[in-house]
Structures are given as C-alpha cells and as structure tokens.
C-alpha cells in the first residue's frame, strides 16, 4: 500500500508540472502522452484494487503486490525526470540538441510501463484469490480470472477490443504512440522558423539549421569549436579519441578522428539514422576538410560495462548485480541488438567493452543502469580488443583459421547472439568467460571450437543458464534470434518480480520452460518472426499470450502429478483384477497426457507411476494381463476411459483458477545441466 501511495505522489507531482504544459518547448507531445499513460495506468490499478482487494487485509494479503508496485514506482520516477528535463527552459538550444532526436519517451518509458502493467494486474489477481472472508466470493473471483485467460482471447485484435483500455493499448493510445515523435519534430521546425522570423544571431541561425538538417550531414567544425560556451572537460578511455565536453550547458562526448572525410561519411550517415535508447548513435557530425579531421557528437555515458563490472566486483568475487538488475541489463542489450539486426546491421565485435553504461537518473534507481551498444560501424575502426577469441562464435574462429577475411561469419546475426551469451555469463557471475582456464590464444580458440564453454557456479538459476546455453550453441541455426530473446527476458523479469524470494541461494525455478512457450507462440503467430521493428504497444498482448500458455501447461503438469500419485496409491492395494484395470488406465492416461502435451509444445516427460514398477516386479501379473486383454478385447480398452475423462475434467475445473503456481526449487551445479 505504501508503494501505491508513493505512486500517487508522482501522479500529483506530474499534474502540477502539466499546469505549465504550454511552456514545454521540447518534446511537448511526448510529455503529454507519457503523463496521460501514467494517469490512465494509475486509474486502472486503482479500479482493480478497489474491486478485488480489502483495505483491512493490506498488511497480510497484499504481499504479491510489493515488488511489482515498487517497480512501477521506479518507472514513474524515471518518466517524471524525463518530463522535468523537457520543461527546463534554461539553455534551450543545448537542450534541443541533446533531446530532439530522442525516442526515449516511447521506446524506453512507455516500453517499461506497458511491460509492467500486465505484471501489476496479475499480482492483483494473486492477492484477490486469497482476499475476502466469504469463500463464495473468493471462488467467484477465481472463476472470473480463469475466464480471462482462455484461448478465445489469444488474438491481437480481440485482445485489444476486450482489454485494450485496461492494458493501455486502446486504438487512441496506439495512434498517439506512433505519431507523438513526428509531431514534436514538426513543432520544433515551426518554433525555429518563428525564431528566425523574429530575429536571431548568426550562431543561433546555424544551430537551427543543425537541428533540422538530414541526419549524417557534416557541419563546419567552427560551429562546435568556436562556440563561446564550448569547454573541453577530460579525455575518456585510452587512445585520446574520446573527449568529454560541455556545450551550451549540456555534457556530450565527441569522438575526434583524423583522416579523409569520404571513407567515414557512409558509416556516419548509418549511425546517425539509428536512434534507440539502447544504442549509441551519432547525433551530429562536424568536419574540417583542410585539416582532415572530424568530430562526432554523441551522448555522454560514464564507462564501459567491462570496467563497471571490475569496479563493483570485489576480490572475493562478489556477484556484480542483483538478479533482477542483471536481467534488466541483459534485456536492454538484447533490445539494442534487436534494433540493429532489424536494420540489417550486424555488430561483429559485441563484448562488454562495447557496451556503455551509466547510472539511471532517478534517486530511486539504486543499482540500475542504462546500457547502450557501441563499437559497430565507424566506431569499430582500428579496434584491437584483448582476448577477442572468447567473444567470437566457433564458426568465426574456424573461418579466421582458414582465411584472413572472416567477415561473412563475423558479421552475422547468430555470431552476435553467441557473443551476447558470453556477456550474459559475465553479468550473472562477475567472471570473464574462461578466466579460470590456463589456456590462452590458439589453444583457447581450439577448445571453443571443440565445444568448451564457461562453467556456471552452483547454485545458478537454471532458467537463465539455459537461456545463455541456447545462445552459445555450437550450431548457429540452434541459437535464438534477439526478438525471441527479448520476449523471454521480459517474461523472466516478470517471474522475478512475482517471486521476490529469487535472491535465496536455492534458486527458484519456473514450472515451465519459457523457451518452449516462445517456440509454441512463434509458430502460432507469424508476425512474431518479424522483419520490422517492434511496436511497444504489442508487448501487453505478448505477455498475455505467454500467461495463457503458461497456465495451461501448469494445469497439465499438476494433472499429471496428481494422476501419477493416484496411480501409485492404487497400485499398492491392487490384486490381479485391479492390476489389469490399472495397467489399462495407466496406458490411457499416458496417451491422454502425451496428446495434451503435444498440443502445447511441451517436451516434459510424464513422471513414472508406481504401477509400472509393480508390473515389472510381478511377471505373473503381466502374463495374466496379456491373457485377459485378449479375452475381453474391446471391454478392457473402453471401460477405464470414462472415469479418466471425468477425473480430468473435474481436475481442470478445480485447478484452472490458480494464477501463480508455487515455483519449483532446484539445486546443484547448473553448469552440468546440458540443453536437450
């Protein structure tokens, strides 16, 4: 309840700020969209809490809401910071240079909000299932929630029609998400035209041209270096190429390059066109053809991920990040790579040194980082990273051994996925892959090609180690793409919020394999194998579809477990006649479960029944079974089937309302667990 009250405080603060919305001179449409989305989200949550929960039980039965609401509060605080930045009137030109190209409103803040809302609603449903004193009311709630997660709603258009407003993806909101950025660009151009008409200085006129120019265009270096408020702050990294500067009241990074302009012009144009919250892009380019030097202006980031991990990890090999934050960083990197791959841009040098990070802006984001991918295209020129073989896929190493040119293999989708898997290993363990190995250079490369991979410490969360192992499969075709990885990571992040005990040494384990859900749903929805960038408005439906399939698989797993337990108890008491019936019942159950399992894309093996053990121990019983089956024929095949079907239907009715099953617990060395 305290978290919800604090969220209300953020809403109140935003409403006060929006009294002056006409004075927002940067990204006004996006700010209004973000405030409206936050306001609508608060109203939806308020209504669901009022409808399903009891205030008097807030200290005893609302525990499922604690972590999801805390996450939502963090998302609201970050959005508030963005709006305050846009509202700030000091140094308008600098603010416009920094923020006018940003897609942060939709691709970062609304992305996080639309991912979090399904988690909040699910948490409310969990609390509602144990809330209230009347068992009749509780049962009604369970029935209502079970009806919500039926397959009838597993179509995007039907989902939007029925639940669009509740999940913030009504047609109106979707339209605003698509148009807000373009409208702000138009407003900016009109504002600059008005300034020119009323009279501005020569420098301001050139800045206006800079803001409205096509991306990738080079401007004279004098516009940057001769500005009165240009200040050099410090050099960044090694080699002296990167410098932190202050220009027009804002901090930036410039990359200083020496050489002809033409060879880098195409790459500058490409990197200028890539705008995503998790990709470093070139905002503006400045060049002096006589001096043969150029300056590429970029957003300031604090350091690379490799250096950050070394700093936060102590000599005792402390894990660098809490699990939730590690998954958040993994998702950001995957989203950045997804954006690049959908534009047919392949990295080739993906490693922690090419992921820049900085702390989040909000004081409530302790430990949270924003990650941006760099090092592709022109940024990769003259790179000489150390220990490169540990980040390269086996097929890249093989091609390097055969030929000096490994471009075809190095710059590929699946090679980047392999490198991503290695980054995830370092995020989860704090260790550089293979750092404990005594092998180096050619020997290390040979072992990687032979199938050697880093070992996860024990205990490690299997649902994450399995994901990483899928990414570094030896066969490239068996590695997932980044679009699938993003969907799975979103759902894993949801699992961590719904199960806050994940920090315990004995790792919690979901009852289903999320990659199995992903494979099943990718076959059902052709659009999921996309060739176009993701619209954030699609995220709630994706989460919803995952939830429906997860509930079905959980119900089937429980039915299998209960049926196996029932079979074991009956087998211990059966005589010859009972044994015959149970043997036939066991055969029917196995067939039924296998059929249901296949329809859901599951690969789980049903648990063995004690009946099978008893049959093996008693050979005389087996002979009687064979004989009686021949004599009775159709009667023995049909008779047990009816009770079985009734049992399954009753079990499904009783079990279907369960919203969040108790996670399995696993222990042992996850490195020893191989993927199927």
TrEMBL record:
The ranges of region (Disordered) come to: 590-676
Under the GO molecular function aspect, what terms does this record hold?
Answer: ATP binding; protein serine/threonine kinase activity
What residue range is the signal peptide?
none
Q: Which residues form the Protein kinase domain?
A: 230-496
Q: Which SUPFAM superfamilies match?
A: Protein kinase-like (PK-like)
Point to the regions of Low complexity compositional bias. 590-609
Task: Name the residue ranges with Polar residues bias.
Answer: 610-622, 644-676
Q: Which InterPro entries match?
A: DUF1221 (IPR010632), Kinase-like_dom_sf (IPR011009), Prot_kinase_dom (IPR000719), Ser-Thr/Tyr_kinase_cat_dom (IPR001245), Ser/Thr_Kinases-Pseudokinases (IPR051681)
| Keywords from the UniProt entry | Kinase, Transferase
Q: How is this protein named in the record? A: Mitogen-activated protein kinase kinase kinase 7
Q: Origin organism of this chain?
A: Dioscorea cayennensis subsp. rotundata
